Amino acid sequence: MLTLISGIVVGFALGLTGGGGSIFAVPLLIYLLHVDVRTAVGVSLAVVGGTSLFGVLTRLRSGEVDFKVGGAFAITGMLGAPVGTWINSLLPPTVVLIAFGILMLVVGFRMWRKPTDSNGSTHDSTRPKAGWQSWLRIGLIGFMVGVITGIFGVGGGFIIVPALVLFGGVTVHRAVSTSLMVITLICLSGVTSYLAGGETMPVELTSLFVLGGCLGMMSGGFLRARLSGNTMRRVFAAAMWFLALFILTKTILESHDTNQLEAVSGPKQTSQPTFEVVATSLKFEEAIQCFGEREFLAKT
Question: Residue 194 belongs to what H/E stretch?
Fold first, then answer.
């Protein structure tokens, strides 16, 4: 039940804000559902990708998805996602959580400052499509979003939507829908590289989370057209700041306690196996290779 509710929260936030809502997935998985950091990132990739796919399918009929610009963004993003999952595998969980908390503070700041009208759209109108410089920027930003997605398991809509508007000449309304397509493809790449790295994913938990995300996205999209965009964005921004401070404080305190415990108990002593122990589990020839012929003769 908690898994379904958590999915609804993430989907609702994603459908209501149009970008940035998926960042709640990892904290909910870790602190509410007690999933380890590495697994939480993988599950979040699947959940955000599945929920975004549902959002794209509901918008295809109305022609709100720009496949040309979104495709260019997604291609480089799909190349960046495996790089991000590889980086995640190298980082200690404490570093991932601290960096994730900082990312949440930045996203919350962007959401707080982003001006919107009553329908939740920014005041930017359609911009003319520029030359190769803008396509290059879109490609570079797409790669960066892919890396961030792979490391933290977030969709990156808070970067994708402004980039599509500024460099792709896409209206904000179309940018939100197009970003869902981009997020779907980038998350697909991230999940593939995650599983290819030998990681496993709890199927039942992931499926329930995706189901909740789809339900939440429907309700979030429904309310988005009826509530003040500025008010809702700032509410979510404040929630992100609160959650980010909680993650940073908890992670730093736990790391400090671990260091103090190690300082009191001292470094772990590694006991060396004796000849007799090795000889009972190995052949005598192998024991001689481990300890040397001189020590073997002394023992016998």
Answer: helix 172-196
Burial of 100 (0-12, 13-18, 19+ CB in 10 A): buried
pLDDT surpasses 70 at 108: yes
146, 154 contact by CB (below 8 A): no
The answer to whether 275 touches 287, Cβ cutoff 8 Å, is yes
Residue with tokens 């981009």: 182
Mean pLDDT of 156-179: 78
113-162 pLDDT, tens per residue?
Answer: 765 444 444 444 444 455 677 788 888 888 998 998 888 887 777 778 77
Helices 132-152 + 37-59 axis angle, to 10: 130
Crossing angle for the helix pair 93-113 and 132-152, to the nearest 10 degrees: 130
117, 240 Cβ separation under 8 angstroms: no
Domain ranges, ordered by start, for the chain: 2-256, 270-300
**Exposed/middle/buried for 123, CB within 10 Å: 0-12, 13-18, 19+?**
exposed
Question: What is the predicted pLDDT for the residue at 127?
Answer: 46
pLDDT of residue 159: 76
Distance CA 58, CA 177 (A): 10
